[in-house]
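Data deposition worksheet. Section B asks for the primary sequence of the deposited chain exactly as it was used as input, without tags or linkers unless they were present during the calculation. Section C holds the resulting structure in C-alpha cell form. Section D is free text for depositor observations; keep each observation to a single sentence. Incomplete worksheets are returned to the depositor.
Section A, Depositor: J.P.
Section B:
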Amino acid sequence: MVAEIRALEDNVTWTLEPLPLGFIQSQADHSLFTLITHARITIVLIYVDDFLVAGNDTSQIDVFKSILSTNFKTKDLGSLKYFLGLEVTRYQKGIFLNQRKYTLDILIDSGQLGARTAQFPMEQI
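Section C:
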C-alpha cells in the first residue's frame, strides 16, 4: 500500500493532505477522526470518498466542511438519511437504524422477493 501511494505522489497524480489541526485518528478504527475542544465534539468517519460528519456544535462542523471544500470538491447531502447501507431515522427520543433498503435489494437481486415465509418457533424468554 505504501508503494502504491508513493507512486501516486511521484507521478503527481495525488497528494496527501494533512488532518485539520486538532483532529485525532482513532486507534481502534483508522477511518474515524475526532476533534474535542472544551464541551464541543466533531466526529468524522471516512469510507473511500464518503464522509460522515457529526457533532454537537454546528459552527465547528461548518469550519471543518469549509476546510474540506478548499482542498477537495465536495457535495453536502444534508442531514444523514443513508450511510453504508444503513437507513437512519431521527426521532425526538433517539435514532432508529435499519437496513430495509439493503435487505430489499438483496431479495430483488437473488429473485427471492416473492418467496413465501417460513414459520419457526421462537424461544420464550
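Section D:
The first strand starts at residue 24 and ends at 25.
Residues 79-111 form one domain.
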